[in-house]
Queue: 2 jobs
Job 1
Amino acid sequence: MRLSVKSSSISGSLTLAIDAKAKKMKSEGMDVVGFGAGEPDFDTPSFIKEAAKEALDRGMTRYTPVAGIAELKEAICHKFKEDNGLDYKPSQIIVSNGAKHSLYNAFQAILNPGDEVIIPSPYWLSYPELVRLADGVPVFVETREEDDFKLKPESLKKAITPKTKALVINSPNNPCGCVYERAELQAIAEIAVENQLFVVSDEVYEAMVYDGLQHISIASLGPEIKDLTIVVNGVSKTYAMTGWRIGYAAAHEDVVKVMSNVQSHTTSNPNSIAQYASLAALTGHKDEVKAMVDEFDKRRKYMVERINSIPGLSCRMPKGAFYVMMNISQVIGKTYKGRRIEGSLSFADALLDAQMVAVVPGVAFGADNFVRLSYAVSLDNIKKGLDRIEAFVRELEG
Ligand SMILES: Cc1ncc(COP(=O)(O)O)c(C=O)c1O
């Protein structure tokens, strides 16, 4: 078939493939422990659901302005001011169908064919594909576990070419769990300003930071970097609203105008009811958010301690989001009942078959010595899953 070469080269999500295999095993009655979750295991707070019901009853069922209803954009401006010290006008805000859609619009708005986008690796697997969909070229810059997987200014400088157009910063980070501190962001911002690079700053895990750390938006570090930054955020993770599909972006007015034009011809406005629910989420109390983050924190500590007690496995203490990158390099090359562990994919596959535990192979994020475990899973299941991982590793030979 004469399909689009560009679109045909985009790979499907590997994380979803592992998830599908685990779900199939579950549906066949197997007791699978899934560490693949990319979403909170909590329900959307009830006052948010009530706001959606009210919006339905009030008949808010028609098209809205493409970039979102005025009240929601005002609430987003207020959120940026309160939480991030950022001043935006409503004309600098666009609401989309999830943060993923905001990212899609952002790359469509800024990239010309062949433009390079620097992506620190390990990376969230949609960035390279979103860049390619906009005819850009992803350029990966390796980070090191010893540096908590954070991009170093020297490595960033080395990766810049005359074609570099933008840089992706994701803090708190999926999959690594690292959180950039002010001075680290300042150093990156200086390089971005010096080279006039756009910064796509994905801040969807903003609410999930631990150990007293504070989330900093790179856009808040001065007027020049603010003009170059497209801040992406959303309600999915913070308010356990992944299915509602509301994300948003803030940027220079010229960028937002182009993003809105792109959106006007693809999806028009995001779902009207979900916009009213998001308005309630952003303006309401944060009791459930706090309870959820406290629970994640407990699970994080338990998971990290357990992993580091298993001979052959190790991990760093993540400072944000809800993922742990488990280092499996010491068991690569060993065998499980005659099956050689070649890398993260064969580790994940053998673990699922042998112990019915689903993890995400790091190769999906450009890190084959690691697998990602999500702690958006109950503590009981975390305990059960880690018992099984321990049993699996003890049985490896070689
Ligand atoms: C780093 C990162 N950015 C963006 C998203 C997308 O979020 P949304 O549900 O708002 O599209 C995810 C979801 O997994 C993510 O991990």
Note: The chain has 14 helices and 15 strands.
Job 2
Amino acid sequence: MDSIELLLTRQSSPQLVAPAPNNTALDTILKAGMRVPDHAGLTPWHFTIVAGNSLQTLSDIFVSAYKNQGAAQTKLDKAAKMPFRAPLIIVVSCCISDHKKVPKQEQIISAGCCAHAMQMAAFALGYGAMWRTGELAYNTDVKTALGVNTEDEIVGYLYLGTPTKTLPQKQSKNYHHYISYL
Ligand SMILES: Cc1cc2nc3c(=O)[nH]c(=O)nc-3n(C[C@H](O)[C@H](O)[C@H](O)COP(=O)(O)O)c2cc1C
């Protein structure tokens, strides 16, 4: 796949199964994540790789966080299943530092670019991926359990694997309504 085809056809895959990206592919995906625009070279991101037995650990973290909120059993059951929507998850977090030239939002944008770049790399390698957040990306207990400081941010859970079926290619959105000329 050439780079323009990648940019014009990337799409998410909500239903992912094994095989996960193999070690070589994961290496490429992580390298793509490291290649993003980064003001002042702060590398304000961290990637937590979750696979194998760790999917159960993440499931337990999600359930425990909701239990602490007194959530209903149906919500606990749903949360328990979430990490099993793919064989591999990269939790992308942003370690925010106080920098006089690089405000918080720029650091979060860079970490977001990591998630996007890694999804693009996965897609180019023939894998599927889906960037998810939801309440559990903003939950203090989850952050703590994942070693993310409470003042830092989880910018996304990037679910990775093999799509269960070849999805029809989505139509591209027309840019005409989203541009203007000064
Ligand atoms: C920061 C961020 C968080 C997202 N969180 C979710 C989510 O929790 N659940 C979800 O279904 N889609 C979520 N999405 C959207 C999907 O990743 C995806 O982009 C969307 O379903 C559109 O599909 P496409 O990527 O094929 O265009 C999120 C996207 C971004 C950028």
Note: The two ends are 35 Å apart (CA to CA).
